[in-house]
Protein 1
Amino acid sequence: MVYIYKKIIGKKPYYYLRISEKKGKKAISKDLAYLGSSIEEAKNAIEHLPQYKEKIRKAHKTIHSFLESNHFLENALALKLKSDDFLGENLNEIEACRLHYCEVFKKRDELTKKEIWKNFIVEFAFNTASIEGNTITLKEAKGLLEDGMTPKNKTLREIYDLQNAEKVFLSLLDDRKELSHELIIDIHSGIVEKIDARLGYRKEDIRVLKSNFDATPGPYVLADMKLLLKWYNENKSKLHPLVLAAIFHHKFEKIHPFMDGNGRTGRMLMNYILMQSEYPPLILHKRSREEYLDALRTADNSDLTKSLIKDYSKLAQFAANELVSSYWGIFL
């Protein structure tokens, strides 16, 4: 496999074309060519290596992703942004994604954007449903949402899970409504359509299985949701949008305002908050489920009115890593 390797010497980057090959049970890596000390130099150099033309072509996607992500990372670093105690070193990576999203992705032709959104939504719907135990595979999800092929031996609930996620996400793409009780209830209603008839904020008590917190008692759900929206409005101009979205998500899940569909609704709301601030949406991956739940548990010490760094930095940085990994894999 051919890829670009970045080496830092005295805070200065140096880029190399590197190959990794298996010899027996060992993976051996070696540098093929020096590409320069900037992304622009590396881009130019990669075009003038005829002896490695076929290897570079086979690794085009990996190399292109590296060059683009690092180009926009350099642009983000040049902005010399004020540090963020929640995000730490992840801040510039997030801003690199935002720059590409606004300067490149949003300016693409409508058909290309539609295709990219379709790819994102398939991955998002699959992962958000899988976190809750849905057994439809990614391949089956693609068949269902792209070609209308109903997967065999799956329940209607599992099928509606994915179809509803797609429908709701598409409805939010161009939505500019302020976050409100009405919007939250509408999103939830779409998420559980044909799955659960219990709509609106719950008034009954609920037990959240395998959690180390008690959800808000039924009679107090509306009051706590009012507190959450008050916290959101007071902090939306103070916190980085990703931090705002991640903390809102946790507080929402701790209230657990609906009888069913809280996780799926909460992850949809995270993305709504991000897109409202011109940031790309993210995917919380099934493979990262335990890390995700652990970050939520760490934040459980907080209450609805607080957002301390010690409680939320783990969740914010986890969300940052998930956004970066999903962004460059889909939106290029």
Protein 2
Amino acid sequence: MHVVVIGGGIAGVAAAGSLAPSARVTLLEAESSLAYHTTGRSAATFLINYGGQAARPLAAASLGFLESPPPAYVDAPLLSSRGVLWVFDEEEIPRLDEIEASGREAGAGSKRISGAEALTLVDRLDLEYVAGAIWEPVASDIDVAGLHQAFVRMARSEGAEVLTNSRVVGLSRSNGAWRVRTEHADLDCDAVVNATGAWGDQLAGLAGIEPIGLVPMRRTAFMVPGSNSYSRWPLVVDAGEKFYFRPDGVQLLCSLAEEIPDDPGDPKPRMEDVALAIERINTATTLDIRTVSSEWTGLRTFAPDRHLVIGEEPTAPGFFWLVGQGGMGIATAPGYGSLLASQVLGGPVPEHLTTAGVDPSLTDPARFRS
């Protein structure tokens, strides 16, 4: 069986790495390098208490791989302990019980703490802002580049072909087989995996498939000067998702945590977004940020119901969606790679996914078709 996976970000390489032991795989990437867009701009944290009903079980199912990846494919651990501190201003205090309860249910070890206790974790918080806090010790930084490279190595070790500068310009199906046209060559295959993120609906359109209604959302991040004394701070997240920040070496990685619809493309940071994030962080802390070292913007793409889209298009046999990961594309990659591979190959859902509570009906693209 020959499968063409389109898209070289984390979703595409997770699919390729999971499929390659059982199928011939060709991975196509439009850019000159893999992970140029969202994956290459992600600063992921593995959070148990985050995401929707479909994403959380996939994250739980991914934890085993992230904690103990195949040693042949990694050079260093993929996870490093971080922890998360949720901070609540007066406006967000009514959500404190909800977030604490969901974290306990998910196994995040969520514990309500006082502002004074929060200050022992992050000594630059402003207690005039922090009306309440939740501490979650079960959270880790993810080595995004290391995870992406692990899947690439898995795929290549099983004979997968990886082609960059290979933008797809046509898709057609005849006599049960697919033809994928790039700017340089045509490929015939048995199945196509659409892992193109923000471009997912556009790619489907090349095959005459109705769009799902994917919405790319801007999110800007930036670096500011920090200190070695900040190195053990947790990820600090405003409960209203008005900002977040965490240490990154001797700098602080900060974000407005915005979700602004945008077109598929290569978005650039807007200075007003960076300025608003700085204003909010300075209000909640005594950091007094004045200088920005670097900034970038990526696109997090959501389906209309904000659940991932994984599975075969009911109107086009052999065309598989792997899109709509939103902000959970890195943390859930091992899980959805395994799920997608089982669907393409026609096998049962892997046991470690069912054990984690993964329900394929929640991510099935058929939910968008009458």
Protein 3
Amino acid sequence: MIGQLHYETTSKYNFPQLLKEAEFSKKIVELSLRSMHTVKGKIFQPDTAASPEILIETTQNENPMLIRGGAISTLLTSLRPIRDGTPIIGIDVSSIKIGITDVGALYAVRGAVVIGVNNRYRYLRFGPLPFHLTRGTTREMLKSLSREFPLNFSFPSQIDPQNQVCSLIERWLQAYVSHLARESIILWDGSLTTRVPGSSAAEISKILKTARENSNIVMAFSKDTTLKLMNWRITDVVAGCRPPCLFEIDALPLSSPSFMRILGRLYVAKLARGGCAFRLDIDRAISRKESITAVERLLGNDLVYQGYPETLRLAHIYSAFTASDVIGVQRFLVRKYGLKLIEQPNMHRTLFGPYGTRLGD
């Protein structure tokens, strides 16, 4: 079972008037509809649902790399929650492959913005928006989207179209929230890291600058990281430390991919007893003292379950696609655009009958 917090529910689209008045780019919807016109009457093969994940509950092992004395212990900071009513805003965007056609593929993208104030949570969903991406239309559509945005996004050519569209809409939401919010803590899913070459470092830097100009602080939580310290994951450093605490790793010799550019001040955050440790990036232009205070304000103004902020957890839940969502979108597109549905044959069932079933079949 997945642990679930209980708190007072709010209306479905009960979001601050500030964001309600924001004119979310109609161009995205127009391009979605335009791309879907190319799918009318095409042969459509739904994407098979992924096998259910097996959830295994594990306990954290004692880390052989415990922090003991010396200079390295000075990088560990204990935290005390500051309850001052600071708004906490979480942003997340998800995409999923709906199926394939004879000329391309169908994807759906959905974003969510969640704001928490005094333990009351409100959210806004953007989407789901379907896109029919083909070799001939993908590059043109991405260029058109980029021109409409206040930022000129760029992506390496090796990134697949699904991730490009998802990342573009995510950056757009982050830019708008940074522009509209005031005196808030804004949480991103992932890290403040870009790829080099072809990186969007300049665009992300503009978003962070806009946030600072409006007295906001941007933090990014990573559930996984490739950064290592002496061949150990950086999140293993704080095993055995008493939470809530922050461990600053900026000054330490880290091993990281050479093609990555890090734009944030790096920490390992362990925010709850019995919870997990996460990589935490905080806008590098924010001073060390302000960064630590901001995390203390996060602790005091948001629920932190299993060491993860509730606003960001809800943003993921509201943006993610369930199996029912996928089936609903598939059925809608089949009826709306007159797709000729074909089923993918299950060869194991065909050849072996009841003895050919596997997990998920």
Protein 4
Amino acid sequence: MADLKLLDDPEFKDLARRKNSISVVLTIATLVVYYGFILLIAFNPEFLGRRFTENIPIGIPIGIGVIVFSWAFTGIYVRWANTHYDAMVENMKRKAGHGGT
């Protein structure tokens, strides 16, 4: 029964809202970067074939950029979770009477 009270707690709702917000924003950003690259491959392969340097087409650094952006977005989420989310979860655990770590 205490768990049902927790679900109605405004602090818990705020915690869930914040987690969902950052998750959705970072997911959308990842999808835009990834599918933007895929659409570029599909509709403008000539651009990706242009030379960035003498031996490297521009598609290679763009593809590497997609991977780097994915890592960066993951890092952003991990940093947010470690600095904000974990503390809020611990506070909710104490509030619910489950102690904490």
